[in-house]
Design brief:
- There is one protein chain.
- It contains five helices and four strands, in the order H-H-E-E-E-H-E-H-H.
- With 130 residues, it is α+β, with helices and mostly antiparallel strands.
- The chain has one domain: Endonuclease, Chain A (3-Layer(aba) Sandwich).
- A four-stranded mixed β-sheet has the order 1-2-3-4, sandwiched between helices.
- Strand 3 (59-64), helix 3 and strand 4 form a beta-alpha-beta unit.
- The termini are far apart.
């Protein structure tokens, strides 16, 4: 599932222009800080660039700002998620506001998804820490 050259270039640009929620989450998960899991940021895959991707967990983590709920974006996200699911990759969508509010809770949500924890609360309703 190698990405076209233009998409790899776009991913490289996106790595330099990450949003604040993406930067905060990246700082929390890079270098195997999250349970030894290796994540890549702005990872090109097929026709898409994934915000974060963990190959060993087959998990894409997408940071969704307010625009993801507008216009045709929900339909585009659903198409992308379906394509990833066909490839055996789960998608976890984290609202940017959740990451800004409590990045530790966001990382716990990622771990619950990786571990398949059935008691995980719905996104946006994460319990506050400390």
């Amino acid at each position: 599932m190698d990405a076209p050259h233009r998409l790899r270039d776009a991913a490289k640009t996106l790595r330099r222009q990450m949003s604040l929620p993406e930067v905060l989450l990246w700082r929390a998960i890079k270098g195997r800080k999250l349970d030894g899991l290796h994540f890549r940021r702005q990872h090109p895959l097929g026709a898409y660039v994934l915000d974060f991707y963990c190959d060993e967990a087959r998990l894409a983590v997408e940071v969704d700002g307010a625009s993801h709920g507008l216009g045709n974006n929900p339909r585009k996200d659903a198409r992308r998620d379906a394509w990833l699911a066909e490839k055996g990759i789960r998608t976890l969508r984290l609202p940017a506001v959740v990451i800004l509010d409590d990045v530790d809770n966001a990382t716990r949500t990622i771990l619950r998804e990786v571990r398949g924890d059935p008691d995980a609360p719905p996104l946006g309703e994460l319990p506050r820490s400390g």
